[in-house]
Amino acid sequence: MQLIANLRGWYEQGWLRAIDLSLAEYLYSKLGADAEAVAVLAALVSHQLGHGHPCLELNELWQDPEATLQIPPEHASYSSVHLCASATEMVAALGPAIVEQLAQSTAVNTLNSPLVLQGQERLYLRRYWDYEQQIKQDLALRMAQQEPIATDALRETLDDLFGVATTLSWQRLACAMAVRSGFTVITGGPGTGKTYTVVRLLATLQKHRADAEPLRIRLAAPTGKAAKRMEDSINEELKRLPTEYSDLLTENQAVTLHRLLGTQSRSRAFRHHANNPLLADVVIIDEASMVDIEMMAAITAALPTTTKLILLGDKDQLASVEAGAVLGQLCDEAEQGHYAANLAQWLNATLTSPAVSRGDDVGAQESIMLADDLIDAEGASQWPYLQHTVMLRESRRFKADEGIGKLATEINQQRTAWLREWLTRAEALTREDAKLANIQLLQVSKNSAASFKALVQQGYQPLQQLVSAGAEGFHDDAAWGEALLEQLEQFQMLAALRRGDWGMQRLNELATLWLNGDRVTSEQWFVGRPVMITQNDYSLDLRNGDIGIVVQRRPDEPPRVLFRGHKKGSLRWLLPSRLTHVETAYVMTIHKSQGSEFTHTVVVVPEHDTPLLTKELLYTGITRARKQLTLVCANPRLVLQATQRRILRGGGLT
Ligand SMILES: Nc1ncnc2c1ncn2[C@@H]1O[C@H](COP(=O)(O)OP(=O)(O)OP(=O)(O)O)[C@@H](O)[C@H]1O
């Protein structure tokens, strides 16, 4: 019972969740004392799920128990560390024969057993093992679906839509790949043309559709905000198509994934599943980095294998908070291509326009084709998902050597030389190179610093003015509402953490005080308060992450919270009393900002290091900025440390 007692010690210090401990206690009571070590490992698998890992990576656990389990956690007090067993002691106490014990246990790898052991490497809770298996089997079926398509005809269409190639066009390559395959991943940073490509893909598919019937297209994203952005940019891009192609397509609505699959009250299951599939020809999912393993399993189960599934997203962004970095795993090593020779040959044939291939300019021809170092003789067997993946590499929004693009790229590539210099003398560097003008560094030692307060006040001043001006200067309430919601996207502060002096909660208190004086607190429903929904509310049709603002339309009316409606251009004005799970959103966490963009984004890095400060976190925060980025930090060294730290998520998808 000593092992379980150790676990209980961890639980009492808040290092383990109640659900993790309960699982161990339940298995111990069912299987008896001989299975205590197995029961403890089950609790550790469950603990890992809480940290976003779909399984427990056993080799990592044996090598470095503290780092693998993050026990003791960063916030652990000195006294608690001395009260509890260490992770190393716990692992040692499991005994040397633990892997054999696992393999022989009735709790592992038997019919409907709670645990599944894969090889000697990974231990899963059965539900997550099932999700992973289902996704793998489903994707294998989709990847095997190859649409026969005449290369010459396809090349002509691609010439119309992307122009005759003069250099290697990754966008065109992605389009060709997705035309042929039942499953495609198009990954790329902000502004690399994922939407541009996918709109041209839809036009290509419609043009080459044998029966000429309109394609049944469904667009979806993990959050309401991301869905709205997807819908706007796809419909905007449709207008830019040559008329011959834009006439083939109509505008489409994008919905959240929950809506796509059909949520049911009081049930985790969706309305659409393998026995009630969602009928569509093409399903496109944007911001796929936020899709967790459970949702991916639900999506793949609900779509017939004849439906073309296309995932769009930035593989370098933070993964979903829930377990499983699906996109990250599928795109592992996408930079290197790893295309099988026959696939590369076919792709090259769609790229090489007849004008070039007829000529004798071999150099010109080669420059538009996949280079040899992207071709891998082992590609098909070693990298099956990469045969269906294209990474877009050129951002049209941020040039790689300009401000936001430069900072994001250096951090993403974990390069510290230029970053160190910028953190030491940002202003001087900007004077020397005007291209850096859209990034600023604000180094302050305290969160009460006057320069930080001025940044917050100036940033939110236009929003405050719009709130207090009221609807009068506008054509009607709707025009005012639209202006308010647009203004909410102009300036946003993002915190790396929730707690602490530089965490989201404290900064919201400060911003509330600086912007409204001490007549209100950040928890109250004051007019002008921006709010974020923190839990899905199906009865009100509001989603976790939706953003609104408290406003008063007329003096004789009570304040209402303004949100964007689900129908295009519609607004909702809800009474605050109807909303239960909200928090003030002058400042939001970087995690919650995924899928959104703001004209001027302020990223706040805390003063103490924590394992949560990673390059993925910084990259995600920085790339939320559309035109201007301010990095606020108390200790520039932490930015360098975070850049050198990566999130490693386990899982056996690949
Ligand atoms: N090949 C191209 N030629 C001309 N313009 C392009 C091309 N590719 C992309 N663009 C333009 O660049 C801008 C960004 O492209 P797009 O919105 O498709 O990128 P994205 O990867 O979807 O961005 P996000 O990360 O914001 O979703 C758009 O205005 C688009 O029209």
Describe this structure in a few short sentences:
By secondary structure, this protein is an alpha/beta fold. Helix content is 43%, strand content 15%.
Structure description:
- The strands form five sheets. Strands 6-5-9-10-4-11 form a six-stranded parallel beta sheet.
- The protein is of the alpha/beta class and 654 residues long.
- Helix content is 43%, strand content 15%.
- A hairpin with a 3-residue loop joins strand 2 (115-118) and strand 3 (122-125).
- It binds adenosine-5'-triphosphate.
- Adenosine-5'-triphosphate (ATP) binds next to helix 12 and helix 13.
Key features?
DNA binding, 654 residues, alpha/beta, RecBCD enzyme subunit RecD, 21 strands, 15% strand, UvrD-like_helicase_C, nucleotide-binding, 6-stranded parallel sheet, single chain, 5-stranded parallel sheet, binds adenosine-5'-triphosphate, EC 5.6.2.3, 29 helices, globular
Percent helix, as a range, is: 40-55%
Largest sheet: 6 strands, parallel
| Strand elements, count | 21
Low-confidence region ranges: none
Catalytic activity: ATP + H2O = ADP + phosphate + H(+)
Family: Belongs to the RecD family.
Protein name: RecBCD enzyme subunit RecD
EC number: 5.6.2.3
Could you give the topology of this structure?
Elements: H1 2-12, H2 18-31, H3 36-50, E1 56-57, H4 58-63, H5 65-69, H6 78-83, H7 87-93, H8 98-104, E2 115-118, E3 122-125, H9 126-144, H10 151-162, H11 170-180, E4 183-188, H12 194-207, E5 217-221, H13 224-239, H14 243-246, E6 254-256, H15 257-261, E7 263-264, E8 267-270, E9 282-285, H16 293-302, E10 308-313, H17 326-330, H18 341-351, H19 354-358, H20 362-367, H21 379-382, E11 389-392, H22 403-412, H23 417-432, E12 439-443, H24 450-469, H25 477-487, E13 491-495, H26 504-516, E14 530-533, E15 547-551, E16 560-564, E17 571-574, E18 582-584, E19 587-589, H27 590-593, E20 598-605, H28 615-622, E21 625-633, H29 636-643
Parallel strand pairs: 4-10, 4-11, 5-6, 5-9, 9-10, 12-21, 13-19, 13-20, 20-21
Antiparallel strand pairs: 1-3, 2-3, 7-8, 14-15, 14-18, 15-16, 16-17
